[in-house]
């Protein structure tokens, strides 16, 4: 327990000081995207890990927040804070609607319905010019500016993503012990039993989905600031699946897994593309290997390695343990 | 011999009243025109051979299954069309024939969920604090069903008997007005059965209890009246003594599917 905390503190220290010693490329192009993709994937960890609902629509929800922000700030020329509120509201409301449609089904059917909803939004975005800007999308989107600095300046944006990433992560972890989170885990294991304890299972599923839409929306805003534009490509089928791939690589059941998976994903897509044209194949193979060899994802592997390491360490240190380490 | 007809409704608030309840599964009629009335505070056992429709009857009472025909009244309210969670909130609780607990949650969390299920703000985003009355109640319940030592164990790691205890704790957590127990003694050791009987006899006298039980010792000790179900039909109803003497019942048990 103490050692785990020590490790977490070390990790936090490294993350906080990263811009001081990490290369600009790693800070700006690897870790920052890993953080906002991680937040979007975290919205899926919440749904799938706690609630057993594997959704493919999380990127769609994130994208809708981006569209909301872009439409308000560019098309309507409103200030950034209205764009943020509108973006989050759109993602949350869309999730509410998606939830109402999807939650009566479970498992693979739930997944199919969410992917269908995602494709409907994709088609709509492609065809509608007045709001979504057709297949060009919305260009020239700018992040908010504070005290003369754009929030997407490399170091600022890294810290912004890190702060929001840590907050959302903490929130999802906290949720596990709340009545909301406990009931969510309970309905994953036995919805019928939960209903005979007085819970409205369908309502709870909708609420969880709505909450996940809000989280995905936060990630979507960061994404659209980073890209400076949004188009249907951002929410096409491949991108939807990418979020699932990220969450599964990291370990669906772990909130940490979302970020770990996102980091691996961004690394692979950045570096595999310089070695081979087929980085989709590399991602696919990684995905398959994880599913086959460690259904718990990288978090599961990391957890096993850590407990192994701790045991060896403890064995080594056993004679001197009373020194108060 | 006690006629079933004698218990037709006198719509004054019975704790539970079934009026002509049937449930079909395709061609099979699992529950057939059942009339049943429980006085508040009454302890009633339902017995009957395997496949008699006892569990199906419970599922219809809780709303997990819709009756094909008939009306269900709970303290005078017609609940026939209410979903399970709303019936539970009215003061109904049940246990299952094979214990249903949440295996990946701790014993304490299982009990806590059961307490919160009948309270407002059951989907609160605030973690319970140690001094919350619900937390205190969790410990009291665990004590009552003999699981004090296992509060922080995962429910899935408990033995069969302990899972039964936990489920009973979960059912009592909502302070129900009507408690439905589906074979609470099944799979228990003789010692555990005795504990169970003691616990059931010590329940608040105003609590109405309907229990399905194969173990006649438990059933006849706890219940004042017994209803016998056979092929979905009520074939007899009376005091434990009357039922033990009843020739139809003897025939069913001796010549039946057993
Ligand atoms: N969901 C269902 N679908 C189809 N048939 C069912 C269903 N549930 C129960 N049955 C059938 O209804 C009949 C009554 O079953 P039920 O489980 O109510 O009996 P029981 O009296 O509880 O028996 P036991 O003592 O074995 O628990 C059985 O023939 C059973 O196969
Ligand atoms: Mg049964």
UniProtKB/TrEMBL annotation, chain A:
<dbReference type="InterPro" id="IPR043428">
    <property type="entry name" value="LivM-like"/>
</dbReference>
<keyword id="KW-1003">Cell membrane</keyword>
<keyword id="KW-0472">Membrane</keyword>
<dbReference type="Pfam" id="PF02653">
    <property type="entry name" value="BPD_transp_2"/>
</dbReference>
<dbReference type="GO" id="GO:0005886">
    <property type="term" value="C:plasma membrane"/>
</dbReference>
<protein>
    <submittedName>
        <fullName>Branched-chain amino acid ABC transporter permease</fullName>
    </submittedName>
</protein>
<dbReference type="GO" id="GO:0015658">
    <property type="term" value="F:branched-chain amino acid transmembrane transporter activity"/>
</dbReference>
<dbReference type="InterPro" id="IPR001851">
    <property type="entry name" value="ABC_transp_permease"/>
</dbReference>
<keyword id="KW-0812">Transmembrane</keyword>
<keyword id="KW-1133">Transmembrane helix</keyword>
